[in-house]
Amino acid sequence: IAFSLAGVGGNSVEKKIYVHLNYTVPCVRLLNATHQIGCQSSLSGNVGVLHVLESEDNLDWVLKSGPNPPYLVILESPLFTRSIMMKLKNGSRRVAGVVVVAPNANPLEAFSPHTTCPNENSGVYSEDYDPALAHCNVTVWNPFGNGLAYEEFDFPIFSLKDDNDTHVIRQCYMEHNRAVNGSTPQYPLCAMQLYSHMSAVTNTATCMRRNDIDFSISPEMVCDPLGDYNVWASTRPINNTAKGHKMWESVVIAAARLDSRSFFFDIAPGADSGVSGFVTLLAAAHALRNATQEAPPNRTILYAFFQGETFDYIGSSRMVYDMQNNQFAVDLDNVHSVLEIGQVGLHTESKLWLHSDPVSRKNSSVLFQVRKLIENLQSAAGGLNISMDEPSVSQPLPPSSFQRFLRARPIPGVVLEDHQSAFSNRFYESMYDNAEYLNISYPPNMTPEEQLEFVTDTAKALTEVATMVAKALYMQAGGSEPQLSSIKADAQIVTRLLYGFLVRSNNSWFQQLIPSDLMSHLANRPTNFYVGVTQQSSEPTLLVQHLLANLTGSTVNITQENCQNQREDENDKENKHMYYYMWVQGAAPPNSTQREGFCIRSTVRLSKALSPAFDMREYTSKDYSTWTESRWKSIKGRIFLVASHDLEMLTLGVGIAVLLTSLLLTYVISSKADMLFSSGREPTNATY
């Protein structure tokens, strides 16, 4: 039985009883070859009496002494720690769920729900490839990792913004549930119900098998593989229709990862862990556009943006697999070397670290090319406010996409990072790895348009890194020395990219560079970089695809119809193999609302970022990612007042008594109906 909550309007009974919560972000269930992680509610939702946890000492009320379990615990973010969450997990019979109030500012202390050794079992270091370097034996990369995001909880955990919803919850708790001077709170009590029932259980093999069970016309799927699309482009057009090895083609791969994650499903800002690297690479690609067209280097530079790297290198392992199986535009024999841009947003004292693999460097030809790449990077940093160094010779590579290339063969390569050993990033793969953490801030009273154009200090620093990367790539590809002075990244582009991905994607610059049918993907919030499932391209993939095309491609004067049909004119049958055409909506001229669209011709392509394990149906694979995401019916939360159990039982008893009495009365009246309702029989010849 629930009672009306004061101050809630509405005509329907349901609206008078419940206050529905907005902006609820859940923790969801993910599965891999061996187990499941994440959270879920029961099928009908979990209901508990609200309890605002004020300190860790206050846990006893929830786990032992509180008289009205189960409790739904409200946590302020400083209390969202492994210690508290594991205690709640172990006492889960008295815990109905947890709501974490997301703060409006980052905490002072470090927080990373990821593990201390990211992608521990899917990189290159293993029992077969220098066991001494495996399992982070030499370097613990993420020392602040508490592993919370890889635990399984059998109750729902939601995140709520610190706004009106949380104010209503606190007010309800203070008025009804708070124990004053040790006294027991009196009914009615404030309660909450959270719905986040997950369909998949156990592991990926189990849920994929259930997906295949076909008992009905429309079989119900219970999980989907994690995945998306990689974005790639090349400085010289490569025939994408003819897959496999290209004679005389030598490729330098410039790579960055696109995705990130946090404990909660819809919050993955990934500012340092992902955005700093791929924004640097986008700016470097733009800086190289003119030089590579005017004086093409001997080798082709291939820009690769990998999706799903957080979950055992989905994107990079797929590209390597496709290269090995002649399913990509080039193969591994075409790959000369790799430069990967990792976390570069927090380089303290303007210092960057050049990481390479100590095992493959034992091969003299690989060592020679690695030294050359490092020399090119150091030479490119000349005249810039950047200093570089190498870690000790015995240190392994940090978690990076390049490791998946090394699993296939010894390829020369360097990973550029802002840390020597352990990550500088104190908020790796958490909701706090955001614009604030990268010190992206704007003077007060600026409009969104002014913020878009304002060049922040972070943008200036990343512009220097992008310039250095661009020059080094040009030298690595065998470019001519005189061109180097003209290669310079644009700080205006970098600051717009950072604003678009970390503050709001719905801005005038992004709007100009995408087709009109993608406008719905732009939002007045930071981009969510969680990879998602394979059915569709995510917002980051679509944005990076169109940004890369605009930054590296050229405008061609053709009709919208020809552009969308991948041709320059009606007779053109060849260009679609070498280029990709996209019609973007452009800007509206002054005093007009009609945008002037145009066609961009570029070498930008999408390639599948789906783990090969799902193509091969090897759901227990140890070589490839097996991560899936459970499906669910609904995600929602609501609060209401609940009566005492005694009163509920009394009401139920009275209801049953009334029902039995009415049944008895009905029976008596029915059995005596002839007597009670009879009247004298009328004569047959009666007329009216």
Terminal residue distance: 57 Å
Mean pLDDT: 91
E-strand count: 25
List unreliable stretches of 5+ residues.
Answer: 1-10
Instruction: Report the total helices.
Output: 19
> What is the general shape?
elongated
Query: What is the percent of helical residues?
Result: 25-40%
β-strand amount: 15-25%
Task: Classify the oligomer.
Answer: single chain
User: Radius of gyration from the CA trace?
Assistant: 31 Å
Please specify the SSE layout and strand pairing.
Elements: E1 2-3, H1 13-17, E2 19-20, E3 25-26, E4 30-31, E5 36-39, E6 46-53, H2 59-65, E7 71-76, H3 82-90, E8 95-102, E9 152-153, E10 157-161, H4 164-176, E11 189-195, H5 204-212, E12 223-225, E13 227-234, E14 251-257, H6 271-294, E15 300-306, H7 314-324, E16 335-341, E17 351-355, H8 364-380, E18 387-389, H9 402-408, E19 413-417, H10 448-453, H11 457-476, H12 491-502, H13 508-512, H14 539-552, E20 554-556, H15 560-564, H16 575-578, E21 580-584, E22 598-602, E23 605-610, H17 612-615, E24 628-630, E25 636-642, H18 645-671, H19 673-677
Parallel strand pairs: 5-9, 6-7, 7-8, 8-10, 14-15, 14-16, 16-19, 17-18
Antiparallel strand pairs: 1-25, 2-25, 3-10, 4-5, 4-24, 6-11, 11-25, 12-24, 13-15, 13-23, 17-19, 20-22, 21-22
Helix pairs in contact: 6-11, 6-12, 6-14, 7-9, 8-11, 11-12
Q: Main traits of this protein?
A:
alpha/beta; nine-stranded mixed β-sheet; disordered N terminus; 25 strands; Nicastrin; 688 residues; signal; glycoprotein
